[in-house]
Design a protein that fits this description.
The chain has 348 residues and is of the alpha/beta class. 28% of the residues lie in helices and 25% in strands. Bound molecules: S-adenosylmethionine. The site of S-adenosylmethionine has 20 residues, from helix 7.
Length: 348
């Protein structure tokens, strides 16, 4: 069966090494970030170290290699073929994306959106109105990816593919009125991804945020109604600093002691510097995290040169977290991550 995976362009210099490490011998490149290859079963990303780099995966149930732009009646033909194939399937939603996101290929963006609309109308209209955000992680969705190489579709659960949107990227504006830095979009995307593996966090969630300045993530958490205790040596942007649900401590996170008696439901760490030192600081706060608390950690890899060093660092960080009593829930490379990954742990 044909398998399709996505690896961010950020890792372009090491794409070939990653594919080799995943055991993929020969693969056809689709767009800039996707690879198509033959394999009987999907890769088990949880068992492969290099699985960390894979943003999206799906087993291709329907492929139409063609140049859609030059194919007469492409939309009608594609819709008919997919309706024939999946008509009796219990689909919760249809999600189609272009293989290359953004402006370089507006034609495919438009075609993807039209195909998605056609298919949603065909597949059970009342359910097709379901908000993409309300999809269930384990129910079946028809995913499609479309580009100058053709159309590639799968009927699969968002969790098995690692995203609610085809390809895994949700568009998040970092120009929202409450936005202070790009990092706000990063935490929004992280919380969206988390829903694949964890129920949405209630508004009553109290966050401890380490490395908060200038406050992009803080603003995003506050916007969602959460309460935040933020810590950073550097100050917060005045637009967020006096928010009523925020307390801010301008100090070293390593020596910071939360106000007596306070327990947190979640911890967010976006501190720069050595990943292992940052994680040691996170683990030192273990006593103020409730059982079941979530830890969202940006694993910065700036100093790691090449795939092997990144994997070695990742390996050490996972071992350190295990020793510190954290259970790994999920890990990914988000659209808003550059040379870093986002790891999610749970306090048992
Ligand atoms: C990437 S920036 C954080 C961006 C921020 N999350 C946002 O959303 O705007 C990293 C921050 O970590 C802070 N930091 C690094 N080590 C720290 C420590 N030991 N104690 C307090 N702050 C620290 C730095 O001062 C810096 O502001």
């Amino acid at each position: 069966m044909q398998q399709l995976i996505r690896i961010s362009e950020v890792f372009a210099p090491i794409h070939e090494e990653i594919l080799a490490r995943l055991g993929i011998g020969s693969a056809k490149r689709l767009g800039t970030e996707y690879w198509l290859f033959s394999r009987e079963t999907p890769l088990d990303l949880s068992k492969l170290e290099a699985g960390l780099f894979v943003r999206w995966q799906m087993s291709v149930d329907h492929a139409w290699p063609c140049v859609p732009e030059q194919t007469e009646d492409f939309l009608e033909k594609a819709t008919r073929a997919l309706v024939r194939k999946f008509a009796t399937s219990p689909l919760q939603q249809v999600m189609v994306s272009p293989l290359v996101a953004g402006s370089p290929h507006p034609v495919y963006k438009k075609l993807a959106s039209q195909l998605q609309q056609n298919l949603r109308q065909e597949f059970c209209p009342p359910r097709a109105r379901l908000d993409p955000e309300e999809q269930e992680a384990e129910a079946l969705t028809l995913f499609g990816l479309l580009g100058k190489e053709g159309l590639f579709c799968a009927m699969a659960s968002p969790r098995s593919c690692r995203g609610f949107y085809a390809g895994g990227s949700k568009y998040i504006s970092h120009n929202a009125p409450h936005s202070i830095s790009r990092a706000g979009a990063k935490v929004a995307e992280a919380l969206h991804f988390l829903r694949l593996f964890h129920p949405a966090l209630p508004e009553t969630t109290r966050w401890l945020e380490l490395g908060a300045s200038p406050g992009g993530m803080t603003a995003e958490l506050l916007e969602r109604g959460f309460a935040v205790t933020a810590v950073d040596r550097a100050p917060l942007d005045p637009r967020v600093a006096s928010h009523p649900r925020l307390e801010f401590f301008a100090e070293n996170a390593a020596t910071f002691l939360p106000p007596r008696g306070t327990l947190y439901d979640a911890l967010l760490c976006d501190m720069n510097g050595s990943a292992e030192e940052s994680l040691a600081i996170v683990l030192s706060k273990r006593a103020v995290l409730r059982s079941g608390a979530l830890v969202v950690f940006t694993l910065k890899t700036h100093k790691a040169a090449g795939m092997e060093e990144i994997l070695a660092l990742h390996h050490r960080v996972l071992a350190q977290a295990r020793r510190g009593g954290l259970e790994l829930l999920a890990q990914t490379h988000l659209t808003y991550n550059r040379h870093e990954f986002t790891l999610f742990w749970r306090v048992p």
